[in-house]
Specification:
Layout (H helix, E strand, L loop, with lengths): L15 H14 L3 H27 L7 H13 L8
Helix pairs in contact: 2-3
Amino acid sequence: MSSKPITASKHDPAGPAETIVSKSVANLRSIPTNQAQSVANRLNRQKLITISAYYRATRCGFKCGDEVQGWLDAEAEINGVSQPGGF
């Protein structure tokens, strides 16, 4: 792996963030379809959990107390498991 930082160049008007994303997509294309699908599913699941945890926290004004429990409750919601308590 190169230690050279990724920077925008004259030929890359999109900038460094898009360069990183495009390289990541290229890396995903180099692995078998079922593995790429598994990675995409895990990333999508993680995003759904993050969104659920955020909305749970907004409902209590970010003063719910236990962020870890909030995350676990959000995870259970996405997994389709009912957990007593939570916020």
